[in-house]
Specification:
- The strands form two sheets. Strands 6-7-8-3-9-10 form a six-stranded mixed sheet, with helices on both faces. It has a four-stranded antiparallel sheet with strand order 2-1-4-5, covered by helices on one side.
- It contains ten helices and ten strands.
- The longest helix is centred in the last third of the chain and has 16 residues.
- It is globular and about 55 Å long.
- Helix 4 packs parallel to helix 6, helix 5 crosses helix 6 and helix 6 packs parallel to helix 7.
- By secondary structure, it is α/β, with parallel strands linked by helices.
Amino acid sequence: MTATPTTTEAIMEHNGEQPPTIVEIEGLHKSYGDHHVLRGVDFQVTRGEVVCVIGPSGSGKSTFLRCINLLETPQAGSIRVRGTELNDPDCDIDTARRHVGMVFQQFNLFPHCSVLENCTIAQQTVLKRSKQEARAIALANLERVGLADKVSYRPAQLSGGQQQRVAIARALSMEPALMLFDEPTSALDPELVGEVLTVMRGLAEDGMTMIVVTHEMAFAKEVADRVIFMDGGVIVEQGEPASVIGNPRQDRTREFLRRVLDPTHV
């Protein structure tokens, strides 16, 4: 007998719809020993929204992102992804993570596997897709990121920008409801940054829900629906890009942007 959905999120899932709020975070705290990295972060993302997170090194941006799929375990706070409370002891974390794709600073590709194999392994082992179905989905996503002609290559045969695009295609092949990007261009040579940002821009235009930790201010200003400035483990300021980047209200935000936009500023 099939259980009857009892919440809005469950009803929407039952009808094949995504809930309007993809991520809800309340009172998030994370420490490493005596180092208090996140200090009570409240945050939410709605379906189709692109949020760029900016801030100085050590401000808690990457830790915040990694807490969203429990790659880091917080000491306190609530994290709900598509209505599922990840901190609930009864939560199946592996199932919840299937809805969240993540792209890291380093590409984390399997070096001895081909591009196509990198994009099919998780589909077959985690989602239990057939080899044929996984291959078709992977090929479609490699086409999407402009690498359909590289399916038989190994990662070492690709540029850094191409490897990062493979990592994006791999994440997309799991058909996530949410994509997390942790400074995806920081390990790339400057001339390769544009090709990755172009792919990400296309995802945003296609309506993908995205949280992007980035130092690429031009990308944030152009693509984001909302920009969040973090410092000292808290959200200092947030709003539309034109406001936060173009006319910040907080002194800490203004000082950070002066340093980023004018590296000679002391």
